[in-house]
Amino acid sequence: MFGTYFYNKNIRNIVILFGTVFNDISIRRTDASNVVKEEIKVPIAYGPAEKFLVRLREATDISKGKVGLTLPRMSFEFTSINYDSTRKLTTTKQFKKVHPTEHTKLKRVYTPVPYNFDFTLSVMVRNSDDGTQILEQILPYFTPAYQVTMNEMSTVGIKRDIPIIFTGLSTEDSYEGDFLTRRALIHTLTFTVHAFMYGPVDDIGIIKEVDVYKYDQTNQADLLPANRVKASSTDIKPDPATAEADDDYGYTTTYTE
Asked: Which among 214, 14, 21, 40 is positioned nearest to 131, based on CA atoms?
């Protein structure tokens, strides 16, 4: 049953979407006269915060190519995924698009399955003011959801507004320690992304010919399959504006192009 290979990159695209939302944040440092002396773009990378903290506290030796980790910095991590039954749609619904190379075929995919993706965003700073600057550039946009348009399935041309929902914030200050220990003030933000997972995309043919049988429903004998008459492609629908009433079909044989 699960032997057919397909890869829509749904999870990968959701992770990239989340990281892209926070990849253009910067902080400014000013003097007593409120003149900007330095502006720093905050880097962001995928990975748990613990990995960057270990790197932060390692001994540095420039002669050996070991350089200490600079702050501020952000990291994010995809932590869990859960099925969301409240957003379930009709399973048999289909999305279709004309095949890019063979115009007599269609690309088809069935209704996606709703899942909630949980993410953790860690903001690591050395100065508390750096942390508040970063938080104030993030939190006002979440009320508690922030909508981002995502190209979910480029093969079928599906775009959707994906809500990223802010669920909580916690702060940890590792200030205690000896004078050789570098301080790391960590703000941990949690989010839930309401996204979808798609199944395999199939190639199907298009309908090029339809057989229609017409008969007088008032005559019971005409309902038998042997008495059906196949409609011709030259049959023309009557014009309701000029046709007169008829007992069988509602109009007379007055036809217009």
From this structure: 40
